[in-house]
Amino acid sequence: MTEVLQIGNRTINASELIPLLASYQMLPQLLRELIIDEAIAPIECTSEEVAYAQKQFYAEKQLTQEADIQAWMAYHGLSASQLETLTLRKLKLEKFKQATWGNKLESYFFQSKAKLDKVIYSLLRTQDIGIAQELYFRIQAKEQSFADVAREYSQGPEAQTGGLVGPIELNSLHPAMVQLLSSSQPNQVLPPTRIAEWFVILRLEKFIPAQLDEPMKVRLMNELFETWLQEQRKQIAPLPTESDINQVAS
C-alpha cells in the first residue's frame, strides 16, 4: 500500500482516502471543486489580473508578511505553485460565470422578478374565526389601530412589532398570502382568510419592486451557477461506496 499521509501515530494509505472522505461527508465537496476546476481551466488572466487577485487573496487571509504566507502554506500543505493556483481560482471562477451567464441575467431577472419583489405588510392571525371577524370590524371601524389590535391579539411573533412584517421577498411567503398581497392596494385591510391553521387579516403597507442592481446581479449569477453545478453533478456516475472500493481493491 502507498503511504500518503502520516498524522500522529496513524498512517493513511491511498486506499483509505476515499472511505475517509466519504465518512466525513467530504466527497460531494471534492466533486464540486473538481467540476469547477475543469470548467475554469481554459480561462486566461492578464498579468494585472493575476497581481490583483494575489493581493486580494492575501488581504482576505490577512497575510501581510512573507512569514505569514509561508506559515499559511505550511498549515494547508501547499506548494508555491499550488498557492498561485489558489489565488487565481476565485478570479477565474468569476470570469467563467460572467462569460457563461453574463448576457442572460436580464432575461433571468424578468423571469424571476415576481418572486424577487418585496413587500412590507401588517399581519394579524388567530385560530378563532369569530375573534378574527370581530377584530377585522374593529379595525375597519377605526375603533382600534391595526398595530394595537395585532399587539394584543395576534398569536405569532408579529405581535411584538404591532403586526408589521418586512421587507420580505414574496417567494418567502405562503402562496395564498402572495396572491392576497399582490392583488391588494396599500392600506387596504383584507378580511379574515383561512391560511393553513390560521385565520389572517392582512394589510399591504408597501410594495418594493426588485431592481437589477449589482447585488442582485451577483445573486442571480450565483443561482444560475449553482443550477449548472447540480446539472453537472447529475451527469457524473454515483460516488463510490466503501464496498465498491473494497471490491476493486480485492
UniProtKB/TrEMBL annotation:
It is an enzyme of class 5 (isomerase). Keywords: Isomerase, Rotamase, Signal. The keyword Isomerase applies. Residues 114-206 form the PpiC domain. It catalyses: [protein]-peptidylproline (omega=180) = [protein]-peptidylproline (omega=0). This is peptidylprolyl isomerase. It holds the Pfam family Rotamase. InterPro entries: PPIase_dom_sf, PPIase_PpiC, PrsA_foldase. One of its GO terms (molecular function) is peptidyl-prolyl cis-trans isomerase activity. Its EC number is 5.2.1.8. PANTHER family: FOLDASE PROTEIN PRSA, PEPTIDYLPROLYL ISOMERASE.
